[in-house]
Specification:
CATH topology: TIM Barrel
Number of strands: 8
CATH superfamily: Aldolase class I
Order of helices and strands: EHEHEHEHHEHHHEHHEHEH
Strand content: 5-15%
Structural class: alpha/beta
CATH class: Alpha Beta
Number of helices: 12
Strand order of the largest sheet: 1-2-3-4-5-6-7-8
Distance between the termini: 15 Å
């Protein structure tokens, strides 16, 4: 059985002080939940204070990105070792970085390999745009992102990472994919592709999440699907009651 996991991506929200208040609201309830892994991903400026607050609580901490080099003249970038001081997880290849900041599949791949080399757990985001979805290119786009993103990643390394299917057209729009569409992409495209590359036994170990306008009202529907192992949550992770309702839906 793959243990469900719910990950909150706070994006460019919350000062360190605001992050402290949110975590203080989350902790009492999250610590009671043992059947679901929970991870919060604050902005870089709040990682230190959040990691201190959740230390020894069972709550994971993730960064929202990192660079692939260990050090050097890369102004504004953050190295894997810097992330590792405070985090166990790191989000890589989020569509907002791909579309707004020009990240390519090759760049994502370099980050993935650097993360696993530094014993960080990558949360690799894949997903198609609205145009690609409407023109029937979902399989082509998602398979390309998976193949290129995982190029050079071994079977042993694969077992520690997480994949999040986030259709670009559903992120922050309130327009979520149906549970059937999410299951089809995750089960029939992503897990099937992993099986063809790494073998069925390995593919069945990998946790694959859905992300894109997930909230307390629709989360339970996704978690009932056999191949959906949790959620990567954006806006609903910024308010304690909303995030807790999603985590509790994963328990059920």
């Amino acid at each position: 059985m793959r243990k469900p996991i719910v990950i909150g991506n706070w994006k460019m929200n919350k000062t360190a002080e605001q992050a402290t208040l949110l975590v203080a609201d989350l902790l009492p309830e999250l610590q009671k939940i043992k059947d679901v892994d929970c991870v919060v991903c604050p902005p870089f400026t709040a990682l230190m204070v959040v990691s201190q607050m959740v230390n020894n609580t069972g709550i994971g901490v993730g960064a929202q990105d990192m660079y692939w080099e260990s050090a050097g003249a890369f102004t504004g970038e953050v190295a894997p070792q810097m992330v590792k001081e405070f985090c166990q997880f790191v989000i890589l290849g989020h569509s907002e970085r791909r579309t707004l900041l020009g990240e390519t599949d090759e760049m994502v791949n370099r980050k993935v390999k650097s993360a696993v080399a530094n014993t960080l757990i990558p949360i690799i985001c894949v997903g198609e745009s609205l145009k690609e979805n409407e023109t029937g290119q979902t399989r082509e786009v998602v398979e390309r992102q998976i193949k290129k993103g995982l190029e050079g990643v071994t079977k042993n390394q694969l077992e520690s990472l997480i994949i999040a299917y986030e259709p670009v057209w559903a992120i922050g729009t309130g327009r979520a994919a149906t549970k059937e569409d999410a299951q089809r992409v995750i089960g029939s495209i992503i897990r099937k592709l992993l099986s063809s590359i790494y073998g069925d036994e390995t593919a069945q170990l990998i946790r694959i999440l859905y992300g894109g306008s997930v909230n307390g009202q629709n989360a339970a529907e996704y978690f009932l699907m056999p191949d959906i192992d949790g959620a990567l949550v954006g806006g609903a992770s910024l308010k304690a009651p909303d995030f807790l309702s999603i985590v509790k839906a994963a328990v059920k």
